């Protein structure tokens, strides 16, 4: 009897792994139950998980059972390990009844499932809101509630917001976070980083860009040739301009044609201007504009194309560039990645190759000449394209054509004595051959050599499995798996199992002859790919194996659909009308939570990166396959190691509401009937890209391809507005009328000028009464039955009130101590203001928020609203201040100024204090202190100012090295527990501060004296010889 255990070589903490145990008997015996125990253990032999299965033996000689073992992360100790260090556990399979026990050391992954990050847009302007979804999934890509941490980082990699999210907050596998950008944020690429999994070792990152921009009104695309050869005579280039609402642009294209030289420099050779007809400009130029010796000089380099399309009506323009076209010897490139590297002697072998253009696109319907030669043990060469192994040259060469995907696949008939196979492929494109000039042949060629599979102990036992040549395999299909043995056998059991996403999902066995088949039914778990493994027990109990990887059509098992219909639930025609109702028609499996988002396609013209797409989802599924290549291996051991794992003008209406994204919502599908989610379309004339994904506890996540909806009117006005304007700036705003209707329309404009005079007090004091206080203690009615007092107050508004500015604040005091406490809170609340302005002004407003909030929390004298306001101001102030941080860690009022010692120390001091209230990236205060120590300290230890602050009121009038040193040392003391480098060289400053008392007469009267004494005491120095009350 033989027991075979198939164990993954990668297990994941928090997931259920599969171990397949098979017993093959020599003879049919009595019926019995055979217990087998599968154990997962740590390196210290402590138990992680254990599962016992019972294999029922009876009338069959082969019986198997799969153990499903949950890898409990709670039973895995936390170990200190360097980044990238591998961790292993031991898998033990034991059967006392059969006297079998074997251990296997396998790799452990601590990654807690998968996390995807989705933002409502990939690009934002300052002060906008970033809406984020964090999607938490288990290994089956179903919803998972787990602990995660969210970090938002600036382009300088500074964490400006950190949020620890409890598992219960990740409802239905999705957590939504809103982050508001400051008015003047750091421009560039920001990052959202999410940590998750065991020990928070795993992380995912998505970037979004922050910049000032105006949405484009039309797109520009360049369609160049696929390649440039030595025989190329003309450059045929098309430029396409289309409005975002899918109408052609009327205008002209200015195309710059150049080359990128070997040093990466762009050299413009010519500029060509062509008119757009129906949105397309045709540029056709002689190739010699590139130079007399262009091919020899620039072979291997890229053609550079840059176009500017000008709109005829306004002169507004958009740009596009392209550098995908290369100057090459051949337009084609062969790839053999889908071909197994090792062949089996005496058995058929399948070669799978791909042909692509140099720009990466498939090359269909191209003739390919194939020569496959086998070298026998006596060095005889034979052709392998026919079963008779003829060595005649003409018969050795066969021509095939690539299919629609650019693939060319063929079979080889390998003799038993074959020791090496050489395959040569040459494209036979007649258009690439210049008669009489062999050196001008631009066809592509590929030659590769294959080695034989090594049978155990140099034996001659082989197995080959082969799938049928199907254009596409879909789930639900059934196909026959061909099995080939090296010779006729009678009593051989072929064991077959299927691995998908790292799990064994099917197993079976069959007694077969020399050529027989095994039926495979494609299940949803096999999307997008699976591996089929087959093996048998050969002579001397050796395992003879083969494997093959199959690709399954990439479609969701949970068939999510999102359609767009009008208010009558009928499909839209060519386009929908703006500001009109729209229904999202959603279908999915009952129990599915569907997340939606609609994005203006104009936004995606600016940036189309880091979006959650179906391609990204399926790539994640594919990543669960820990195998390598298309299948096979040099030995059976290698084979097994592969696996483990609307018209608005007739009625005078106006378009309104122009968001760049909307419908950021979650919709629950609770039945098989469609769900209709109603919205009102924004006023934008554009194309909306509707993105959606669905989560279900019993199905993998489904991300569908975006649905597009064109929104436009036959007649509309478009205003070309700048991103921003400055005071007293003269701005020209163009109004363009677009008429796609059948009748001419006369446009009339009305100019209206509004004047309003306002008298301002130069001293900033409002002489008028800004508010009216009403204090009322009479006219009260006591309602004894309801124990309530009704007070009637006259709050008639002043006659000079500005419409839209009215407000009323009611204060009720219910305690004799109330007025006193209200005065304290209201008085301190005056300091709680939103931080704004330059780097210094931001700190002037930020610091009081920190001090007041700490006071309220320490004395329990605040209230929930004022504390929340203060914390919100602190968070926004911290983010804003980082925009005035230099790369060296220093701060200044404006980035055009050099770093200020005082301001940098003040930032460090306040940021360290704020870290007690909210998440603060320690790098900010610590690098600030490091900059001061390394750049603003004299040889005697004193700290000095390099560039004085603008707002002198910040410093309280303190100047000189002594005061600067004291203030800097205080900042360092505030950050002692945060920064490791705080104590570096600090002793020099302490020595300076304990100099003769006369030096500190002025300093002692200042606000730093108490803190100074504290710092000296903490530093272990003697108490100063003067009193702090002096």
From TrEMBL:
A cellular component annotation (GO) from this entry: extracellular space
Alpha-2-macroglobulin domain boundaries: 661-754
SMART domains: A2M, A2M_N_2, Thiol-ester_cl
Domain Alpha-2-macroglobulin bait region, residue spans: 463-606
Assigned keywords, A-Z: Disulfide bond, Glycoprotein, Secreted, Signal
An example Gene Ontology molecular-function term: endopeptidase inhibitor activity
The keyword Cell membrane appears for this protein: no
Any Pfam family hit: MG4
Location within or outside the cell: Secreted
Cross-referenced Gene3D superfamilies: 1.50.10.20, 2.20.130.20, 2.60.40.1930, 2.60.40.1940, 6.20.50.160, Immunoglobulins
Protein name as annotated: Complement component 3-2
Organism: Stichopus japonicus (Sea cucumber)
């Amino acid at each position: 009897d033989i027991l075979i255990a198939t164990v993954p070589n990668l297990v994941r903490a928090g997931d259920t792994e599969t171990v397949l145990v098979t017993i093959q008997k020599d003879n049919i015996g009595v019926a019995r139950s055979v217990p087998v125990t599968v154990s997962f253990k740590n390196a210290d032999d402590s138990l992680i998980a254990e599962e016992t299965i019972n294999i029922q033996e009876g009338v069959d000689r082969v019986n198997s059972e799969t153990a499903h073992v949950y890898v409990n992360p709670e039973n895995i100790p936390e170990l200190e390990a360097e980044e990238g260090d591998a961790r292993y556990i031991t898998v033990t399979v034991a059967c006392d009844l059969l006297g079998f026990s074997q251990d296997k050391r396998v790799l452990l992954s601590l990654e807690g499932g998968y996390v995807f990050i989705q933002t409502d847009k990939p690009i934002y302007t300052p002060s906008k809101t970033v809406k984020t979804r964090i999607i938490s999934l288990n290994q089956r890509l179903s919803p998972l509630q787990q602990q995660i941490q969210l970090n938002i980082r600036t382009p300088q990699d500074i964490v400006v917001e950190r949020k620890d999210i409890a598992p219960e907050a990740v409802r239905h596998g999705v957590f939504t976070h809103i982050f508001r950008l400051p008015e003047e944020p750091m421009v560039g690429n920001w990052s959202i980083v999410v940590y998750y999994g065991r020990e928070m070792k795993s992380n995912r990152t998505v970037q979004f860009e922050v910049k000032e921009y105006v949405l484009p009104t039309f797109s520009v695309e360049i369609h160049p040739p696929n390649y440039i050869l030595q025989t190329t005579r003309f450059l045929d280039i098309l430029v396409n301009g289309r409005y975002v609402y899918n109408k052609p642009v009327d205008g002209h294209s200015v195309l710059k044609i150049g080359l990128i030289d070997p040093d990466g420099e762009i050299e413009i050779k010519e500029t060509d201007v062509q008119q757009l007809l129906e949105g397309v400009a045709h540029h056709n130029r002689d190739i010699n504009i590139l130079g007399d010796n262009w091919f020899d000089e620039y072979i291997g380099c890229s053609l550079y194309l840059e176009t500017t399309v000008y709109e005829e009506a306004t002169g507004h323009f958009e740009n596009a560039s392209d550098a995908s076209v290369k100057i090459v010897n051949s337009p084609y490139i062969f790839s053999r990645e889908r071909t197994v590297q090792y062949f089996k002697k005496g058995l058929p072998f399948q070669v799978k190759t791909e042909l692509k253009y140099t720009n990466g696109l498939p090359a269909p319907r191209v003739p390919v000449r194939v020569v496959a030669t086998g070298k026998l043990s006596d060095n005889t060469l034979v052709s392998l394209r026919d079963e008779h192994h003829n060595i005649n040259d003409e018969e050795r060469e066969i021509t095939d054509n690539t299919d629609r995907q650019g693939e060319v696949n063929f079979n080889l008939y390998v003799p038993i004595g074959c020791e090496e196979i050489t395959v040569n492929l040459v494209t036979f494109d007649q258009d690439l051959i210049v008669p009489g000039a062999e050196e001008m042949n631009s066809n592509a060629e590929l030659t590769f050599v294959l080695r034989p599979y090594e049978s155990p102990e140099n034996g001659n036992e082989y197995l080959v499995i082969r799938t049928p040549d199907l254009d596409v395999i879909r789930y639900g299909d059934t196909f026959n798996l061909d099995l080939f043995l090296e010779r006729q056998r009678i009593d051989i059991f072929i064991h077959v199992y299927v691995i998908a996403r790292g799990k064994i999902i099917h197993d079976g066995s069959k007694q077969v002859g020399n050529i027989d088949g095994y039926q495979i039914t494609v299940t949803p778990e096999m999307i997008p790919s699976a591996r089929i493994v087959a093996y048998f027990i050969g002579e001397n109990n050796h395992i003879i194996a083969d494997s093959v990887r199959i690709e399954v059509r990439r479609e969701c098992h949970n068939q999510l659909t999102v359609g767009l219909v009008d208010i009558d639930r009928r499909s839209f025609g060519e386009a929908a009308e703006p500001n009109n109702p729209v229904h999202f028609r959603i279908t999915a499996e009952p129990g599915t939570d569907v997340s939606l988002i609609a994005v203006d396609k104009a936004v995606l013209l600016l940036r189309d990166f880091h979006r959650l797409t179906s391609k990204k989802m399926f790539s994640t599924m594919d990543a669960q396959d820990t195998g390598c290549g298309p299948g096979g291996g040099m030995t059976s051991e290698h084979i097994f190691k592969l696996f483990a794992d609307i018209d608005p003008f007739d009625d005078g209406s106006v378009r309104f509401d122009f968001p760049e994204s909307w419908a950021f919502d979650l919709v629950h599908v609770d039945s098989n009937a469609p769900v209709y989610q109603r919205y009102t379309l924004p006023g934008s004339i554009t194309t909306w890209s509707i993105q959606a994904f669905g989560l279900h506890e019993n199905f993998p996540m489904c991300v569908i391809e975006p649905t597009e909806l064109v929104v436009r009117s036959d007649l509309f006005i478009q205003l070309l507005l700048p991103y921003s304007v400055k005071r007293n700036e003269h701005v020209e705003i163009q109004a363009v009328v677009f008429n796609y209707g059948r009748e001419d329309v006369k446009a009339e404009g009305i100019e209206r000028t509004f004047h309003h005079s306002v008298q301002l007090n130069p001293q900033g004091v409002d002489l008028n009464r800004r508010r009216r206080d009403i204090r009322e203690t009479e006219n009260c009615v006591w309602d004894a039955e309801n124990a309530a007092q009704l007070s009637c107050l006259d709050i008639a508004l002043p006659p000079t009130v500005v419409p839209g500015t009215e407000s009323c604040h009611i204060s009720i005091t219910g305690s004799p101590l109330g007025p006193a406490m209200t005065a304290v809170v209201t008085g301190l609340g005056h300091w709680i203001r939103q931080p704004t302005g330059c780097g210094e002004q931001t700190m002037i407003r930020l610091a009081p928020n920190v001090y007041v909030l700490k006071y309220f929390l320490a004395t329990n004298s605040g209230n929930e609203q004022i504390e929340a306001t203060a914390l919100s101001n602190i968070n926004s102030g911290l983010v804003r201040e980082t925009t005035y941080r230099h790369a060296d860690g220093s701060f200044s009022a404006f980035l055009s100024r050099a770093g200020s010692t005082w301001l940098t120390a003040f930032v460090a001091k306040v940021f360290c204090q704020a870290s007690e209230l909210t998440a603060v990236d320690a790098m900010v205060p610590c690098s600030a202190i490091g900059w001061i120590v390394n750049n603003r300290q004299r040889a005697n230890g004193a700290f000095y100012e390099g560039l004085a602050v603008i707002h002198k009121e910040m410093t309280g009038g303190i100047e000189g090295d002594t005061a600067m040193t004291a203030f800097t040392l205080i900042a360092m003391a505030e950050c002692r527990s945060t920064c490791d480098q705080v104590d570096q060289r600090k002793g020099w400053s302490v020595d300076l501060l304990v100099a003769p008392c006369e030096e500190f007469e002025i300093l002692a009267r200042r606000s730093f004296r108490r803190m100074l004494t504290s710092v000296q005491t903490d530093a272990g120095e003697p108490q100063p010889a003067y009193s702090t009350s002096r």
